[in-house]
Amino acid sequence: MEDKLQALKVRLGEISDLRKSASLLGWDQQTYMPPGGAAARAEQLATLQKTSHDWFTADEVGELLEALSSESAGWDYDMDEAALVRVTARDYEKARKVPSQLVAEFARVTALAYEAWNRARAQSNFSLFEPHLEKVVDLNVRLAEALGYEDHIYDPLLDQFEPEMKTARLATIFENLKTELLPFVQAISERTGAVDDSALHRTFEEQKQWGFGVQVIKDFGFDFDRGRQDKSVHPFTTSFSIGDVRLTTRVDPNYLPSALFGTLHECGHGLYEQGINSSLERTGLDDGASLGVHESQSRLWENLVGRSREFWSHYFPRLRQVFPDQLNDLDVETFYRAVNRVEPSFIRVEADEVTYNLHILLRFELENEMLEGKVKIADLPEAWNAKMQTYLGVVPPDDARGVLQDIHWSGGTLGYFPTYSLGNLISVQFFDKARVDIPSLPDQIAAGRFDELLSWLRENIHRYGRKYTPVELVKRVTGNDLTASNYVAYIKAKFSDIYGL
Ligand code: ZN
Tens of pLDDT along 427-439? Predict the structure, then answer.
């Protein structure tokens, strides 16, 4: 049995090397690669991805897993080895269900869809993207059929990113958010004059913005001996090992929050990656429990820490020293309110904490309607705008700022968006528990001290990697199931205070 376990680990280690090499090529593509490298890089990435998929889905892996699965039934559930067999068997079963012909078709369709989406968005012309989106939806229907489902066609697509989450469960959570948040957004909309954020739109030197962000994430505990930060058009985090975690950010000289909160957000992802137990390295379990749980870590540092009054009581005087000309006429309370301004807007990635989940709700509903054939692709812009009117009270002036704004569909992905909302909900559930376990947490944050919070996250979440499903992890950490109620209570308390409601 030891031999079989060892053989499985060797194979998974090699597959991990291929995948991490692909990540390195992807990171380079988005940071330093000159445009002339694009065509060859696409081939290199495709080869690595195909090879790692083939190696992972090989019969030999299945035989090892089968032999180990019966044996491991008696092992302690929390053992690394038990988790390795359990989680790998689940991944294997899913990967084997997808015919390689379908994988190849996804690659072909999305390569063209991405180009078409880029052009369509630049010209704000949905009809250029429409035939490609038809194909993407069709491929996803076939993928869902291949993976199989009992209740809902959306289930297997969602499960790729959020294991064990079900559409019906998610619909209930979103319904809850809708009931609670719609009237709240409406009430805030009537008081938009209560918060002035014009100071954030002054000119802030890029290098100084970069330096301030780096200082804060060093204080958070991001280890620059085991990671680095570079610039990219779209901020992201990736890792090549637990000892090499890469963050990227972008800097807008005319809008302070862009780099600042982008940096804190990606740092939250990076701290998770740096905190995984080294015993899981090169096993495939050295990643976040799910996209939702990963996002809970970025949102926790960005919003629950980085947009709190305690945080700014410590950092605002420091920020004002860096930018005296821009900020000397402001006090900390005005600044705190400015970085928490709520405004229903067109663009998801720029949305505030209150309206953000409504952008996701809209996409969740439309993705379901597309898969079920309840909305024609040609009618999607109208359907989008109608929901924007209902949920946010604003209608985008063109499709570039409406239905064409996000990259995800052009990449072939349906079922991904809800993980952003789940991340928001889980971040508050985790933080609420951390506050119970660390009574002086607000004082520590106000003193610029984050070591105890980071240790708590490492102990309870980070070190486990993918050992537990998101459902198991939330239950283990908080004692409760995933719920919207912590999030709703947090939002109402914080923003009633800011807007005097
Ligand atoms: Zn994120």
Answer: 999 999 999 999 9
Amino acid at 244: D
| Distance separating alpha carbons of residues 432 and 32, to the nearest angstrom | 40
Helix axes 167-189, 356-371, angle to 10 degrees: 140
- Examine the residue annotation and report whether 266 is marked as an active-site residue of this protein: yes
Name 196's Cβ contacts closer than 8 Å, sequence gap at least 6.
334, 337, 338
- What is the rounded CA–CA span in Å between residue 57 and residue 51? 10
Is the Cβ–Cβ distance between 144 and 156 less than 8 Å?
Answer: yes
Distance 500 CA to ligand 1 centre (A): 30
Dist. CA 266 → ligand 1 center (Å) = 6
184-198 pLDDT, tens digit each: 999 999 998 899 999
pTM greater than the 0.90 cutoff: yes
Active-site residue (options: 266, 295, 302, 367): 266
How many angstroms does the Cα of residue 10 sit away from the middle of ligand 1? 31
The strand pairing partners of 228, in sequence order, are 246
Q: Report the 3 state secondary structure along 8-44.
A: HHHHHHHHHHHHHHHHHHHHHHHHCCCHHHHHHHHHH
Residue 456 has pLDDT above 90, yes or no: yes
Protein residues near ligand 1, an ion, with CB under 5 A: 298
